[in-house]
Amino acid sequence: MLPSQAAANNKVVAHIRGKQLGGSSAMNFMFWTHPSRRDVDNWGALGNAGWSWDALAPYSRRSEAFLAPSAQQTTDLRLGYVDPSAHGTGGPIANGFPKLHSPFLQAWPRTMEKLGLGVRGDPRDGEALGGYVNLLNIADATRSYAANAYLGPARQRTNLKVVTGAHVTRILLKKSKNGVRATGVSWTQEAGKHEATASKEVVLAAGSVASPQLLEVSGVGGRKLLKQHGVDVLVDNPNVGENLQDHVYVPLGFAVKPGLPTNEDYADATYFQEQLSLYLQNKTGRLSSAGASSALLSLEQIAPTLDSASPSLKSTVPGLADQYRLILRDLKSEAVAQELTIEGGISPQFSSDTTKLFSAGSPGNFLSILGVLEHPLSWGSVHIRSADAAVHPQIDPRYLSNPLDVQLLKAIALHLQTVARTPPLRDLLQGGGSVYQPGYRALTADDVEGWVRAAVQSEYHPCGTCAMLPKSAGGVVDERLRVYGVEGLRVVDASVFPSIPRANIQSLVYAVAERAADFIKQDA
């Protein structure tokens, strides 16, 4: 269930989930971005002993297989900043730069340089800011993701059984002399009920929506909520399902000059079939690659005069005061925004229908520029509405409920217009960036807030709902990802992030999972 968002004009924002092998890594935008050093160090500062950028770095490297750019790619995409030594090369997840370069992709880093925002250093080092061409999870024109990179090589293991078409109904918990222990899981499949017994431990990796839901229907959660839905309370922890954090963005759509390639070209069935045939026959053509522009920018870079001080930042919720303090401390120097392009139109009025969201809905060809808020202060929750795991939980991100998020997105949206009107990107847009996709308009300081509230979207990066924090500070799992109050139960997914990092979260999910694998082996 998705309640309307009061601070965002009461709109409903859909939350898509990866319900296939590989989870959401099978359907994301394939951007291979990384948290900042400060993002991960902050996890340690919040009370998680042993967590820091340096401690996690070996696991980040372990997960990735960096494909160095060619000399031609380096020239075309301004990749002189790349430091191969900052990347891992022996891991399962491939990442490299686009081999097919659109005019927009080549213009992006040059436009950022014109604005004085060119990247200084490799963003993989966790410190560099600026605009650049991003890495993608593509190898041999094929998505590199959890199912083909991790599961594929392990499918022949005799101790591995993959069950598809299943819906987990609960974690089996049993009271013991030491409290509560996880003994297995139950699920339904093709109308049948099944159970599996754990000899050592249960690992919950259902994502930021389903992981807290499964804990709650299994008896781990806030006492009042569980009793309301008739669930026996085994572990009273009201932190379960709280601390939901998500990246949000505002888009602007611009008409491009005639003849430039955008996603609208695929509306021509003949053209689409030609491109599909090229891909299926020899993995060439436009379907073999994707756009990958990115810019990680601090508040100092996009709106140096904006005052981040706000009485709304005071919080009486355990743990939030410390997280707010760290976010505010870093606004001036860390990435407050990620700006990127999509070579096609977006229709923000369809926030509740993702089949229509990523389309223009109007004749013509368009470029969308997105401005993403990297460390929002508006946090929500995920909680059950029933004791039945088949009933969708209530997902309430409370977008824009903190006024500072609105102020930051206003500054970001206005900066997007500056980017669009700067050469060489402006040379690719009709009217030098002054002709908008129908439904969009030029923004001013006086009316930008209305646009932010109407157009804000989720970037589908939910995290934090089973937070790794001291229990007294809002935690659900400890620093080894073990659920408080339950023996033999660990959570390993983005729900354990105590605070949301900059940029796309997929690379950090892999790194945390790699470290969790060591925890599991060490604790066996």
Any descriptors?
524 residues, alpha+beta, Glucose Oxidase, domain 3, FAD/NAD(P)-binding domain, 2 domains, 6-stranded antiparallel beta sheet, 4-stranded mixed beta sheet, 14 helices, 18% strand, flavoprotein, FAD, GMC_OxRdtase_N, GMC_OxRtase_C
Could you please describe the fold and organization of this structure?
Helix 2 packs across helix 14 (506-523). Helix 7 (223-228) links the parallel strand 12 and strand 13 (235-236). It contains 14 helices and 22 strands. The strands form eight sheets. It has a six-stranded antiparallel β-sheet with strand order 4-15-16-17-14-20. It has helices spanning 37-45, 53-63, 71-76, 103-114, 146-154, 207-217, 223-228, 269-282, 299-302, 320-330, 354-357, 403-420, 448-455, 506-523; strands at residues 31-32, 64-66, 93-95, 130-133, 135-136, 138-139, 142-143, 166-176, 179-189, 192-197, 202-204, 220-221, 235-236, 248-255, 293-298, 335-342, 366-373, 381-383, 394-396, 457-458, 486-487, 489-491. The chain has two domains: 6-25 and 101-134 and 245-458, Glucose Oxidase, domain 3; 168-241 and 467-523, FAD/NAD(P)-binding domain, CATH 3.50.50.60. By secondary structure, it is an alpha+beta fold. Belongs to the GMC oxidoreductase family. Residues 18-41, 207-221 form the Glucose-methanol-choline oxidoreductase N-terminal domain.
